[in-house]
Amino acid sequence: MSLSISLSVNGVAREVALDDPRVTLLDLLRERLDLTGTKKGCDRGQCGACTVLLDGRRINACLALAASCDGAAVLTIEGLAQGDTLHPVQAAFIAHDGLQCGFCTPGQIMSAVGLLREAQTGDDPERVREAMSGNLCRCGAYAGITEAILDAQRQLAAPDHAEAA
Amino acid sequence: MNRFEYIRPATIAEAVAAAAAPGAAYLAGGTNLIDLLKGGIVRPERVVDVTRLPGLDAIETLADGSVRIGALVRNADLAHDPDFAHRFPAVVEALLSGASAQLRNAATVGGNLLQRTRCAYFYDVASACNKRTPGAGCAARGGDTRLAAVLGWSEHCIATHPSDFCVPLVALDAVVEIVGTAGSRDVPLESLHRLPGDTPARESVLEPGELIVAVRLPADAASFAAHARYLKLRERTSYAFAVVSAAAALRIEHGAIVAARIALGSVAPKPWRAHAAEAVLTGAHPDRAAFRRAAEAALADATPSGDNGFRIELSRRVVARALARAAAGTPARLPALPASPFAPAPGGLHA
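Predict the joint structure of the above. Result:
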């Protein structure tokens, strides 16, 4: 069977012909659209490395069939910066050493962007940690990740950043 | 993952007709099914994607005061609905104690009810499992039974139902709305899941093609809002299935319990309502002794399914503690670690 789907990927309209309905959103991004920033860790919804925003909400791309995402808007790590200007969450991860090896980082950052959009944690580090529990970091950069998210949240709340995110 | 035919129907009638065929499976959020497909644990010939069916994503209050939750409402959307959270705080605490934020954004109400067990032998296709392959035997029996059932199990299957969401729902008398080729019907959530007996592969009363379209909470369920909690014991504080969990809801008037609702999770093949324990509490003073008596009643029929007798006493303590928390009152805001027995360490080592 062949199935044609339409996606907006990082703001660009994409038409993709799927020859197999088993393709996940993660494999579509990495193998067919050459967007390898989204990482495949466990591929079973346990590590969060594949986190992307689907219609503005963070999900695990490994557990979504691409066919089922027909018509959706996908935002990946490649679509976050504005030209050479990093998104405040990206900049904060660098400033606070929120990474070591970097493999989980695209998923951490996309999850953090989703968390800030959800606006459920406030400035409570314990709530930030709980809301990030779907993203594992085997280097153990959690302390820097939490600081980076809290800092990015403060920056985005500042008047000169009001239109970002 | 086996090859399958992918169908995305536009109406409930089309979906039900497509899924009535042998070997068909419904797909909604996919958080459980895609994982099972990848492991070769389920091998459907046809996948019926219900995510585009109209009218199944609303949270509505009906004329009789009951609340109807569409089957496609995402777990996160239900948990973050302020009005719903105000009326059914234990349901929200259970939702937010489950999975991760990413999974809650995708997972649906209907899918949560029908999620499969997390029994390791069910997931391991090299192990015998009567659920996966009827008649194959049960490798869990005599195996690692630390997380296996202590209530409702049979010699053919000792797996547990892992849902958090279902536990307060069954305590609050939730009703499941079902549509099938023969029409619509309502089934109490307590009767949706079957006990394994000698047919553990048949996990619910749903007939082929039948689709859950909504879950209803009766108007009376909101009357417990002031004293309703969910408590979930896990091997790590977040992003883990329960070892044992309990929902407790009380209505207290003039210092006495006038109505109690109790259910347990992850100890039985289905979300386990503890009617006998509720009866013990009706009219009682809400104190430790009464909660312990209720806990004894809740586990009165429990038996180990292997080397897991500790789960019975653990369950009693979780029930008693959930009741104590409920009696203390629903907090104005959910704790940072929903349903956790632990409070955050103040000024902790991190950040």
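DSSP finds 13 helices and twelve strands in chain B.
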